[in-house]
């Protein structure tokens, strides 16, 4: 179980964008988090993935309270999450080939020798041909780069996937293809999914349940009163 308990977070303690918000995600469950731009849902997603330390509250993973964030999180917790961001060009090192980009997490945890066997198979599963793997981000389209970023998120076989506006910059066919890859992975591995977005139709078709940001904020306000 992934639990966000009474999370308050932001980038200025005097004006947090997330105030006393809670959310739970069961293993194998897919939850859509729906809300307009700027409401705080991406910040909450980063907290859930242990990429942003909250000002208050707890992130609990399988009964264990997270004690560290980013590189200070224990490896077994840090590698339990795969994250795909909205803008692939901001989340990809422009110096890396797509092969190196996908293999990045393996090298970060000392498993770089697995890349030669793992990367081609994973790249094929997200729809990247071998001819693209030697290219760098500026040499491929947004959709192709986002496919590589999804492969990178899956390469350590995470138990939890956080897709933060993953398809917002993509066309309908690429969106459908990437959602299909995520669902195949979840069916195979039993991973939980938190899909953040502002497209109600997509989230309601994709996820087991969809939570609107206003519902989370409203519950928090009621509790605080």
UniProtKB/TrEMBL annotation:
State whether keyword Membrane applies.
no
Query: Which keywords does the record carry?
Result: ATP-binding, Nucleotide-binding, Transport
Q: Which PROSITE patterns match?
A: ABC_TRANSPORTER_2
Q: Name one GO molecular function term.
A: ATP binding
Is Nucleotide-binding one of the keywords? Answer: yes
What SUPFAM superfamilies would the database entry show? P-loop containing nucleoside triphosphate hydrolases (SSF52540)
Q: Which residues form the ABC transporter domain?
A: 2-223
Domain of life per record: Bacteria
Give one Pfam family: ABC_tran
> What is the official name of this protein in its record?
ATP-binding cassette domain-containing protein
- Source species: Streptomyces atriruber
